[in-house]
Description:
alpha/beta, Rossmann fold, Dihydrodipicolinate Reductase, domain 2, 8-stranded mixed β-sheet, 6-stranded parallel β-sheet, about 25% strand, globular
Amino acid sequence: MKFLVIGYGSIGKRHARNIKFLGHEVILLRHSRDTINKDGFDEYYSYEEVLKSVDSIDGAIVCSPTSCHLNDVNILVDNNIPFLLEKPPTVDYQSYLEMVKFFKQREFSRYDIGFNLRFCPALKFIKEYLPNLGHIYASRVSAGYYLPDWRENVDYRTTNSARKELGGGVHIELIHEIDYIIWFFGLPEKVFGYTNRISILEISTEDICVAVFQYGNGSVVELHLDYLSQKNLRGCQIIAEHGTMEWDFIEGKVKLFVKGQKIPEELLSLDEDYDFNETYIEELENFIGVVNRKKSKNINIQDAVDSMKVLEAIKLSS
Length: 318
């Protein structure tokens, strides 16, 4: 099969190499020549050039800046090319509603959205285990990285993460956390949030996001995201009737703390050599199944609408 990878930043490179690893052909559509195509993929610099020169594109992976997503998707749908759209889908909720409307008008359904954390073994385990915890009282979800060190050998000031005009911002970049909160607990009734740029980093985007999600049964979720933590942080804590569950992404472990037990039970421990790239491989394999009409989407329209709705609520309350 032949796949068009749109955008050749860090995530574009990852997807292109993974497609090659899976035994398929890669064509690049690039927006600039600022990085060297060391992998030797065929490359083009406009849709016109691609559509004129390349026969039978089976699917596309949209890895362009978020601000370009709506235009990219419109062109792909117009040409009936199935696509995997990297998160976040668009820069804001209204733009995403425009995208959804376009899908429905064209009766287009062969697409998926790149929330690869749903393929993370730890999160899949927690999702299945949640009913055993009984009533959920409260949860804390966090992710923090020091932006200048996030991508090796990349000037952070040039990345989408750092540039407002490209659709960056920590709450947008780490929308994965919002997605899995909704996946676990459903859509909250109320959202209170704060986002801002508070550091001296040379960026035009928000570098911190703090939010509280309130549910009808009284439970709450606290969300913390930042570009500032010089110790990488990612994980969650779920405080519930039958114990407190903790997931530490860096350790690769899920633990359960139960009253009367001094030592937590280790429910899941990923092998030390587990490669997180496997989540992207599984995501691509699922998308290829969508292209071939053999699998269903990982993320449906409503899932992404809900995440964008919460993102908008955080921005509005800030």
